Every structure is written in structure tokens, then in C-alpha cells.
């Protein structure tokens, strides 16, 4: 398996699409801050050319890390079923479980490197171009990363699993969004009518990252502000990693038969 992970990492970091993706993300971040800077400079009364406004868009939307994790997985492995890479690997005697673990590891390494590079561009451009004021600070942004980390890893694992399990990429993408976003929201809305579903709904990341947070131009109250809130994020993320990982390995093992 180690040799497979090495080969996948080599393939990933010699792939143009990975560098294009990283460049696009960094470029969009830079463009965003340049637009805010120009509006702040040439539009009287413009209130949004601040680091607080910029940071608030990330801090108020923790699920964006999950979406980006799935994007990296799709960039790396969306075409595997089409070009026969997956079938060739199985034919060479690599089990589906080993393929799954190897792809998760490679995706995680790739996502981490792209995250670090994008955040570096984000922070440097924000501090150079925008006015440093407002309730949302870089500390809030840094605390968000560990709070969301395990949830994002679980989203990555689920993305790899669905792209492995389903033959059609469209099915994998739709199923991922159903599990990560649509189903939690349905449970949340049902919880407003059915009492016992409400506490369950508030343990789903897509819900507590929105319901239990209040971030805007005047306020910054996040779920991870308290020890209890941070622990909730980590526990939920850890359970999701274990659950998605176990279900994925079991399901792929059965499919292998």
C-alpha cells in the first residue's frame, strides 16, 4: 500500500490539473481582495474593504472547507472510472480497500498543501490590501481550521468512497451533497416540528455550523468560541471520520466480492 500511496502522490504532484486548481483558488482569493481594495479606494462610503469583512465570509461558512475537500478529490479521481485507471489497479491485485485508503491519504496530503498555499495568499493579500478593523480577526480564522478539520476530512473520505463505489460521477456528486448538506437540512426542518429530532439535527455539521453561529460586520460568535463548542466540532468530526471510513471499507470490501 505504501508504494501505491507514493505512486499516487507522484501522479498528483505531476498533474497539471492540480496546479491549475491551486492557481485558480489563489487567483480568485487575490482577485476578491483586489476588488474590495478598489471599491474601498474609489467608492465613498464603501464599508466592506476591511479584513473583518473578508474573514467573516470564511468564518461564517465553515462548510466551504468540506466543499473544497470534495473538489480536490474530484480533481484527482473523477476521471478514474472513465479512463480505466481504477480497473487496471484492481487487475494488478490491489484490493479496493487498499485503493480507498491510498486515495484518501493522497487526497488529504494534496488538500492540505493546497489549503496552506491558498490561505497564505488569502492572509497576505488581505493584510496588504484591506483596512485592518472589525470584530472578525485572524484569530477567529485560525481557530476555525482545527474546529472544521475533522469534519472536512470526513467529507473527503466520503467523496473518495462515492467516487469509488458509484460508476457514474454525477451519482457520486449528488449522493455526497445529499449526505453532507440536504439530509441534515431536512432533519433540521423536521426537528422544528418533531422534538426528539432537534438535538439530533444540532449534532450534524451542516446545521450547527449555521444555527449555532452569528457572524457579520458587527458580531462574531462562533460555535468554537467555547471549549464545549470546540469539543463538539472535534467529536462530531471524529465520529464522522470513523463512521464514513468504516462504512466505506465494509461496502467496498463487499463490492470486491
Walk me through the topology.
Elements: H1 2-12, H2 16-42, H3 51-59, H4 64-77, H5 80-83, H6 85-91, H7 96-129, H8 138-165, H9 169-191, H10 197-201, H11 205-211, E1 214-215, E2 220-221, H12 227-256
Antiparallel strand pairs: 1-2
Helix pairs in contact: 1-7, 2-7, 3-8, 4-7, 4-8, 7-8, 8-9, 8-12
Labels describing this entry:
257 residues, mainly alpha
Can you describe this structure?
- By secondary structure, this protein is mainly α.
- Helices cover 77% and strands 2% of the residues.
- It has helices spanning 2-12, 16-42, 51-59, 64-77, 80-83, 85-91, 96-129, 138-165, 169-191, 197-201, 205-211, 227-256, and strands at residues 214-215, 220-221.
- A hairpin with a 4-residue loop joins strand 1 (214-215) and strand 2.
- The longest helix is centred in the middle third of the chain and has 34 residues, at 96-129.
Amino acid at each position: 500500500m505504501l508504494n501505491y500511496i507514493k505512486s499516487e502522490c507522484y501522479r498528483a504532484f505531476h498533474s497539471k490539473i492540480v496546479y491549475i486548481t491551486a492557481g485558480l483558488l489563489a487567483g480568485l482569493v487575490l482577485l476578491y481582495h483586489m476588488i474590495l481594495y478598489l471599491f474601498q479606494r474609489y467608492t465613498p462610503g464603501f464599508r466592506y474593504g476591511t479584513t473583518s469583512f473578508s474573514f467573516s465570509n470564511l468564518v461564517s461558512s465553515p462548510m466551504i472547507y468540506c466543499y473544497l475537500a470534495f473538489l480536490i478529490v474530484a480533481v484527482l479521481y473523477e476521471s478514474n472510472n472513465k479512463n480505466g485507471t481504477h480497473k487496471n489497479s484492481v487487475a494488478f491485485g490491489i484490493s479496493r480497500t487498499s485503493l480507498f485508503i491510498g486515495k484518501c491519504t493522497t487526497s488529504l496530503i494534496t488538500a492540505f498543501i493546497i489549503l496552506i498555499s491558498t490561505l497564505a495568499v488569502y492572509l497576505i493579500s488581505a493584510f496588504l490590501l484591506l483596512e485592518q478593523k472589525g470584530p472578525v480577526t485572524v484569530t477567529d480564522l485560525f481557530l476555525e481550521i482545527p474546529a472544521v478539520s475533522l469534519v472536512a476530512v470526513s467529507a473527503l473520505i466520503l467523496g473518495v468512497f462515492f467516487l469509488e463505489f458509484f460508476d457514474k460521477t454525477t451519482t457520486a456528486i449528488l449522493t455526497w451533497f445529499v449526505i453532507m448538506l440536504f439530509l441534515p437540512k431536512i432533519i433540521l426542518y423536521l426537528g422544528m416540528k418533531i422534538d426528539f429530532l432537534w438535538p439530533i439535527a444540532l449534532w450534524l455539521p451542516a446545521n450547527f455550523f449555521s444555527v449555532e453561529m452569528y457572524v457579520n460586520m458587527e458580531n462574531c460568535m462562533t460555535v468554537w468560541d467555547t471549549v464545549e463548542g470546540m469539543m463538539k466540532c472535534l467529536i462530531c468530526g471524529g465520529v464522522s471520520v470513523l463512521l464514513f471510513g468504516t462504512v466505506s471499507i465494509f461496502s467496498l470490501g463487499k463490492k470486491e466480492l
